[in-house]
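User: Hello, can you help with two protein structures?

Assistant: Certainly.
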Amino acid sequence: MSIQTGDKIPAVTLKVMGEKGPQDISSEEIFSGKKVVLFAVPGAFTPGCTLTHLPGYVVNADKMKAKGVDTIACLSVNDAFVMDAWGKSQNAEELMMLADGNCELTEALGLVLDGSGFGLGKRSQRYAMIVDNGTISHLAVEPAGAVDVSAADKILALL
């Protein structure tokens, strides 16, 4: 069963790249007392994620922050090294690049994508959510292969 609007974000530890390498960051630290736009992709450097999904958030980051968003976070079931390199390659300095390398948050949300048929193992479904102080106020999960309801312009219109 996947998470729904009105539910709280589960308590897990993710990774971000720090000055000295990968660092732990708790979901509480990311979401508590903040308005956060979290979007997830099946994989860093993959075509739909790199050409369509991530760029929309990079381009619209200032507009989202002007509407009261404290943090825009991109999550993938990749490691912190990959997420950091992908963020740098896409000029995503305004975004928090979250590594869910062990698929812990993705599994807790019930939003796992089985990519084993493509040699990808467990991945995240493509989605976006607006989270207010740890509670999901909007959730948009994409059908397989689509980048529509979770696109930055759709989320921006809801803020």
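That covers the first. Now for the second protein you mentioned:
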Amino acid sequence: MALMITDECINCDVCEPECPNDAITMGLTIYEIDPNKCTECVGHYDVPQCRQVCPVDCIPLHPEHVETHDQLMTKYRALTGKEN
């Protein structure tokens, strides 16, 4: 599953630099996660880094982008060109 940022986001700016896939960008009012780039940090880290640093816990799984670990790994490989 890709992650998403809810409207509880306080725009603290800590999540964006933590994303290894550059999936997090500033939207109109809050940060947003591009589900086509989000691998939940699979291939990079054991846990999603944005969730680790978020002070308000506003980054849940995105219910409209359900993906298995294997699908996330395939996306990681496509994004990075790495075989991990």
